[in-house]
From TrEMBL:
InterPro entries: FAS1-like_DH_region (IPR039569), HotDog_dom_sf (IPR029069), MCH/BMMD (IPR052342). Residues 13-133 form the FAS1-like dehydratase domain. It comes from the Bacteria. This is FAS1-like dehydratase domain-containing protein. It comes from Rhodoferax sediminis. Gene3D superfamilies: Hotdog Thioesterase. Coiled coil: none annotated. Transmembrane segments: none annotated.
Length: 156
């Protein structure tokens, strides 16, 4: 999508399913190092194999990947003002070699006190390539309405 959805375009029955994204060993190691997840759960291969059967991705990494898929799909491009809230429930682990996709469904919306923006709530299911639910969450976003006027247009 070149441009995302306006507030008015969200409604009953709206859904979107993103493309799948791979969760790689290299990606997990980079996330763990960058964010200081320095615990045997993520850094000790023997411990990981014995305790978890392999390299598990931190849940927050998978949540970031899921939100990255929303951005990559362009759903909020030039329409999203900001992300207000996420309410993740981590259901199943995701491992190196898995892939995840984000299945999104409209839940609710309301206008704010300013007519050029509204609040949109969407339900998300982050699924592995096996169809297993890894994370369920609601996302609350402030989204532009069609009344929003771009700064460039105002200058003309």
């Amino acid at each position: 999508m070149d441009e995302g959805l306006y507030f008015e375009e969200y409604g009953e029955g709206w859904t979107h399913e993103t493309r799948p994204a791979p969760i790689t060993d290299e990606g997990i190691r980079a996330f763990v190092a960058l964010h200081g997840f320095n615990t045997p759960t993520y850094t000790d291969p023997k411990y990981m194999k014995m305790s978890y059967g392999g390299r598990m991705a931190p849940g927050l990494m998978v949540l970031c990947a899921a939100e990255g898929l929303v951005l990559d799909a362009g759903l909020t491009r030039r329409r999203g003002i900001f992300l207000v809230e996420l309410t993740p429930k981590f259901k199943k682990p995701v491992y190196a070699g898995d892939s995840v996709l984000n299945r999104i469904r409209f839940k609710s919306k309301r206008l704010t006190s300013k007519p050029d923006r509204g609040i949109v709530v969407t339900e998300h299911e982050v699924l592995t390539q096996k169809g297993e639910l890894a994370i369920a969450y609601d996302a609350v976003r402030m989204i532009r309405t069609r009344e929003f006027i771009e700064a460039e247009a105002q200058a003309d």
